[in-house]
Design a protein that fits this description.
Helices cover 73% and strands 0% of the residues. It is an all-alpha fold and 297 residues long.
């Protein structure tokens, strides 16, 4: 039975998206902490492997059948492959371009969602004011991180292209879930496809990229950071995200994702002593205005 779909975001959806964006912003800090002991792509693979085991236990407890034939296999494997490619491209691209520059290119993903769903799902189409809201929210990202933009050199062009490709993978995964059989299966099964495929693909990708893997003897803080990513991010938050996609307009949900790097900047300053750019206040205002325009009735 397909879940009931809403045409607009209600208070529950907006509150959940705010919480998810804060968690994903905090995850940026957790990943940086874990990078001190575990290479990034391997870290993502271990995160998926731990989360898929947790998901199997959860589904067993809830009586959810993950392996019944329901016509979602092809779309599920494709979504898992795109999810894996997204992370591999992000971490590989960061070898060529700074993280603060990469954010700008990665957060073109909501435009991929908006443009694709505009043509594929009439109910997801944005009007002119909503499109302006999406542009305003992206303007907030430019204001917060744009001081790191300049004409790229050869290496940065490679990294920028990889981050743009990762954005296409990210947005494309959301579009695929929204427009395929995955839109009507349980969110736990959609998550199982993504975690299962990435758990198999990312560790070998780490070797191909020449990562060190486990670096020395990781500290307790490194393992705690990885455990938090497994339980809170890859399991709980992604399960919530897929639940939201199955019930609410994906384009309107995606507009909230512009908050994630801003939360990440704030958590980085608070927990790691990182620098906050002068435009953060204005960026928050632009993103908030953009989200309002996209989601207003």
């Amino acid at each position: 039975m397909s879940p009931q779909r809403h045409t607009h975001l209600d208070a529950l959806a907006m509150a959940l998206m705010m919480g998810l964006c804060a968690l994903w912003g905090l995850n940026q800090v957790a990943a940086k902490v874990a990078n001190a002991g575990i290479s990034p792509v391997l870290q993502a693979g271990l995160r998926s492997a731990g989360s898929v085991l947790l998901l199997l236990v959860w589904c067993r407890f809830r009586g959810v059948r993950l392996f019944d034939a329901d016509g979602s296999l092809a779309a599920g494997l494709a979504a898992g492959a795109m999810f894996s490619a997204e992370f591999a491209l992000i971490y590989w691209g960061l070898e060529f371009t700074p993280a603060s520059r990469a954010v700008v290119f990665l957060y073109t993903a909501p435009f991929v969602v908006a443009l694709c769903l505009h043509w594929l799902v009439p109910a997801e189409r944005l009007n002119r004011m909503q499109s302006l809201g999406l542009i305003a929210a992206f303007g907030g990202i430019l204001l917060a991180f744009g001081d790191n933009l300049s004409l790229p050199d050869g290496r940065q062009m490679i990294g920028d292209a990889m981050l743009l490709a990762a954005a296409v993978m990210w947005g494309g995964t959301t579009v695929l879930i929204r427009t395929s059989r995955l839109s009507s299966v349980r969110p736990s099964k959609t998550l199982f496809y993504q975690l299962g495929v990435s758990a198999l693909v990312l560790p070998p990708a780490s070797l191909l990229l020449g990562e060190t893997g486990i670096i020395g003897q990781p500290s307790t803080l490194v393992w705690v950071s990885l455990a938090g990513q497994i339980v809170v991010v890859a399991f709980a938050s992604y399960l919530t995200w897929f639940w939201l996609i199955s019930r609410y307009p994906a384009t309107r949900l995606s507009a909230f994702s512009f908050l994630t790097p801003l939360f990440g900047m704030m958590f980085g300053a608070w927990l790691l002593g990182e620098r906050i750019t002068w435009g953060l206040g204005g960026a928050m205002a632009l993103v908030a205005a953009g989200i309002w325009l996209v989601n207003r009735k």
